[in-house]
Amino acid sequence: MTIVVTGATGHLGRLAIESLLAKGVPASEIVGLGRQVDKIADLGITVKKVSYDDVDALTEAFTGADKVLFISGSEVGKRISQHTNVVTAAKKAGVGLVVYTSAPKADTTEMKLAAEHLATERLLADSGLPHVILRNSWYVENYNVAQALEHGLFGAAGDGKIAASPRSDYAEAAASVLVGDGHAGKVYELGGESFTLAELAAEISRQSGKPVAYTDLPEDKYVDLLVGVGVPRAAAEIYADADAAASRGALEVPLTDLETLLGRPVTPLSTSIRAALG
């Protein structure tokens, strides 16, 4: 069996490969694709420098693959064209199963960030390829604990609950799907322990012994704050929109699917914060 992991040089990709290795998949059966291949050179797998913009290179890399973990691209605004290349290449290469990392509630949410993910889900459905959708909710790592200790926590999520887990939980769940059977055609809504941003601030404060407050802002003011610290306006608007959507329940996802794939409880928020404080 050959498993190809796209986006393998990113944080999630590397963790997924480590999870596959931990589950007993031989390194010789794993191929990692990415742009900064030195980042995974130590894992002992086959590594190929491939971009989502190069459909021919993707097709060559997918040829002979039984399964592909398709980690979504990171360039918002370019995902649809890049993801079209991935799906086209997988179809040409005759991949047996594609496992795609999507966004929470992609088919029902108003969150702008999900639009490109929903388009990709539809590309996969139209392709006829056997596939699995992993709708990953937020990563705990999305929140910078060091910055929160220094400046406090800011957002526009109100009292909305956010189901988050560390990347390692989502990576392990993806690996479970790749090594398991009977997942084709399934859509999994994956989320960890739910918390409000005020509760996150309180947990950081409790563990660090330093006062950390959450300041809730109107969506437009949060955009201005992000732009003020160097975030490009287009990205700031996406992030603020996600927070506003969270205030309406867009990121509240049950634990069930993630814990089922993990075969264990999700990592508690307290454990993630402890690790971040390190």
UniProtKB/TrEMBL annotation:
Keyword Methyltransferase: no
Pfam families referenced in this protein's UniProt entry, alphabetically: NmrA
GO MF terms, alphabetically ordered: NAD(P)H dehydrogenase (quinone) activity
Keywords recorded for this protein, A-Z: Oxidoreductase
EC number of this enzyme: 1.6.5.2
Residue ranges annotated for the NmrA-like domain, each copy included: 2-232
SUPFAM superfamilies hit by this protein: NAD(P)-binding Rossmann-fold domains
PANTHER family per record: NMRA-LIKE DOMAIN-CONTAINING PROTEIN, QUINONE OXIDOREDUCTASE 2
Protein name: SDR family oxidoreductase
Protein's organism: Paractinoplanes globisporus
